[in-house]
Amino acid sequence: MLQAQDSGWYKKGWTLDIKNHSWTENTENEVDFIVQTLELTGKERILDLACGYGRHALSFARRGYAVVGVDLSEDYVQDARAEARKASLTAEFIRADIRDIQFRNEFDVVLNLADGAIGYLEDDIENLKIFDKISEALRPGGKHFMGVCNAEFAEQNCPRREWEIGEKALALALLKWDGETRRMIYAGWDVPYGQPAKKPEFREGGPCRLYTKAELREILAQRQMKIRATFSDFTGKEDSRKELALLVYSQKA
């Protein structure tokens, strides 16, 4: 039976092998969608929270945006810095816990993509601090975009098995829902093409606090932010409790 990892799971286990995962292959289309949806001009200053190895941040920087990325993983931050230097991009990468950043009214756009660490922290109080940092970092009228998993889907459809065909590997996932803690436990396994397959072992997974759209609307409103649009994928498909992904575009008053 799939068990939840300890509360500090988000601090460990992140490697650059993630570059081969199927869900990183759509980065450019995701950035295209964000630019179009948020009606960006290219002059905005962008903060990418839990930026990973900088795949979105670097894409924005290549398009001329000034970008700051923040992540807890030293490997990810060093790799992102190296890519930015190699391409002479206007992108800064900071290794830090999101809760420790001290930006105030400095950014036109804040991003939390591929969860962006939302829901990863030890308890509800700590998780809400991420939303505080988002609002604090945004200038008045600034825009926020996040991609998270939908609690309404998880509570109705988990436990569940998922699979996705990528260009480099077949991605398998096992999802389990804990209604008491409102956390989805996720465990993934990749089967690379051209290599002998190994039997997947789903023993422990990362527990992530999920939110409904209604919960997010209230959380954001408490921080002077208003939801402008929601989607279930990066083609603009309408959000639904029948879809795992929940994309939320909001704006600070």
Q: What would you say this structure looks like, in words?
A:
This protein has helices spanning 27-37, 55-62, 74-87, 124-137, 151-157, 213-221, and strands spanning 3-4, 45-49, 66-71, 91-95, 107-112, 138-149, 160-165, 169-178, 183-192, 204-209, 225-231, 245-252. It is α/β, with parallel strands linked by helices. It has 2 domains: 13-149 and 212-252, Rossmann fold, CATH 3.40.50; 153-207. Helix 1 crosses helix 2 (55-62) and helix 2 runs parallel beside helix 3. The longest helix has 14 residues, at 74-87.
Summarize the structure.
By secondary structure, the chain is an alpha/beta fold.
Output the keywords.
33% strand, 25% helix, globular, 2 domains, alpha/beta, 253 residues, seven-stranded mixed sheet, five-stranded mixed sheet, Rossmann fold
Q: Between the first and last Cα atoms, what is the distance in angstroms?
A: 46 Å
The main sheet comes to: 7 strands, mixed
Radius of gyration: 18 Å
Quick check: average pLDDT? 96
Q: Based on DSSP secondary structure assignment, what is the total number of beta strands?
A: 12
Into which percent range does the helicity of residues fall?
Answer: 10-25%
Structural class: alpha/beta
The spatial strand order of the largest sheet comes to 4-3-2-5-6-12-11
Shape summary:
globular
CATH architecture of the largest domain: 3-Layer(aba) Sandwich
- Given as residue ranges, the uncertain stretches (5+ residues, pLDDT < 50) are none
Give helix and strand order, one letter per element, not per position: EHEHEHEEHEHEEEEHEE
Strand content: 25-35%
Under CATH, the topology of the largest domain is which? Rossmann fold
**For the record, what is the CATH homologous superfamily label of the largest domain?**
Vaccinia Virus protein VP39
